[in-house]
Amino acid sequence: MSQLTDEISRRRTFAIISHPDAGKTTLTEKLLLFGGAIHIAGAVKSNKIKKTATSDWMEIEKQRGISVATSVMGFEYDGYKINILDTPGHQDFAEDTYRTLTAVDSVIIVVDVAKGVEQQTRKLMEVCRMRNTPVIIFVNKLDREGRDPFDILDELEQELHISVRPLSWPINIGAKFKGVYNIHEHSLDLFTPDKQKVTERVEIESIDDPRIDEAVGETDAAKLREDLELIEGVYPAFETEEYLAGKVAPVFFGSALNTFGVKELLDCFVKIAPSPRPVEAVERKISPEEETFSGFVFKIHANMDPNHRSCIAFVKICSGKFERNAPYRHVRSGKTLKFAAPTAFMAQKKSIVDEAFPGDIVGIPDTGNFKIGDTLTTSEELHFKGLPSFSPEMFKYIENTDPMKSKQLDKGIQQLMDEGVAQLFTNQFNGRKIIGTVGQLQFEVIQYRLLHEYGAQCRWEPISLYKACWITSDDQEALEAFKRRKHQFMATDREGRDVFLADSSYVLQMAQSDFPKIRFYFSSEF
Ligand code: G4P
């Protein structure tokens, strides 16, 4: 095997996603502990912003700093190079999470055994389904009272629209929780709460082994056998191929806080999870094994120091080997760029790297060259697909309150939009700028950052909008007619594409039925 294929096959790049509080941060930290990447629990700070609208800004700033450090966590485990991409916990930053999902090859979904599938989990799963991303589910907090595991499995299937296959099975739950039977490997792990170390493992021959009865008692052993029989009857045998195709999600049970069931999850994950997969560009499919380098920017992070307007662009490597100081083509601008100080993220530390491989993320210090979705190549004209903007859910007019600073404001808005903080639409009728977000918090972050990083002041004015949708038509005349009829509600996005601003769902429905030749899109990728 060449060095490139060797490096590719040992890489696992994934994200852990969950509804806030299900245990994503705790699980991430425990995985890092196993990788030896950190040595004490509590080292990974949650980057979630717990407070909402009235949160104090220092908190947001602090959180932003933390989320740079924990944006990508790379570590070595058992010969594998693992890259965990962190996603913001707060739902107002969901768009950021969606984009991060374009840079991973698989995901682990954490579900709270008491709460089951929650709203955010459902939404994130939709994005995974759109991309056929393989998912593994970790049912967490078994040390607490929760639902019956069979009910949880049913709920996962119904709510997440994916077939599931348990690969481990809990013995009781909450106060009576005794451990987990590993269906995959026929072993029994006994639960010892609050032990940060390895759990006690009972090696067994088969499910009939009397050692199970000795370990958990006859009643629970009988119940376990009954449950397993039911599982084998109901769920088809696990096939890795089906998991890789995004059709079946293997399910593990455990307790992240107690480091219970985590190692089993990790061991199975490295074995079955995909190494970097081919990526679709507009022009063609790019295989990671291609010798020439290509990659795309999926995230831009502004630096903490407002005096230096520097950012870090996060580049996911799609093919070939990335090398420091090599000339790469920045496809959007046509410029050739060299990167003297690309950073890799290992165990929370940033360090300069000389080379990186498909599946890896490199951070490139940037002073405004990059936008989300930009492609870097060795020379080829490539554009990666799959970084959609979704129709925002909240809209406000942004107005300048300091006429002396209008330049700063424009620049600030432009750069924040390049970072993907929110979306900008310009009303074609009155030229006013509209900012669209998925949550209230983003408006506050924008206002704060404009002031502190650009010295620009703005205020928000209400606009009552239901949705912004991108429109196209094969019939140019029909398109023009629509735009004339709706001229007050037409805007352009930053790429100059036509966007229809519907002020109610009724108006949108009417427009859809009155103008059958017009196609309406709710994400910018079409
Ligand atoms: P998130 O990133 O998905 O938002 O969740 P996070 O890991 O921060 O976990 C949310 C809360 O759930 C934390 O408690 C955490 O300690 C707890 N937790 C995680 N895994 C388990 C588990 O297996 N069992 C139990 N009983 N609790 C678990 P917190 O009180 O909100 O935060 P903290 O003060 O402990 O940090």
UniProtKB/TrEMBL annotation:
GO cellular component, one term: cytosol
Keywords, ordered alphabetically: Cytoplasm, GTP-binding, Nucleotide-binding, Protein biosynthesis
InterPro entries: EF-G-like_DII, EFG_III/V, G_TR_CS, P-loop_NTPase, PrfC, RF3_C, RF3_dom_3_sf, RF3_GTP-bd
Annotated signal peptide: none
One BP term from GO: regulation of translational termination
A single GO molecular function term of this UniProt record: translation release factor activity, codon nonspecific
Top-rank taxon: Bacteria
Transmembrane segments: none
Gene3D superfamilies recorded: P-loop containing nucleotide triphosphate hydrolases, Peptide chain release factor 3, domain III
Annotated residues for binding of GTP: 18-25, 86-90, 140-143
Compartments reported by the entry: Cytoplasm
Tr-type G domain: residues covered: 9-277
Primary location recorded for the protein, binned into one broad class: cytoplasm
UniProt similarity note: Belongs to the TRAFAC class translation factor GTPase superfamily. Classic translation factor GTPase family. PrfC subfamily.
Role: Increases the formation of ribosomal termination complexes and stimulates activities of RF-1 and RF-2. It binds guanine nucleotides and has strong preference for UGA stop codons. It may interact directly with the ribosome. The stimulation of RF-1 and RF-2 is significantly reduced by GTP and GDP, but not by GMP.
NCBIfam families xrefs: prfC, PRK00741.1, small_GTP
Record's protein name: Peptide chain release factor 3
Organism, as annotated: Paramuribaculum intestinale
Gene name of this polypeptide: prfC
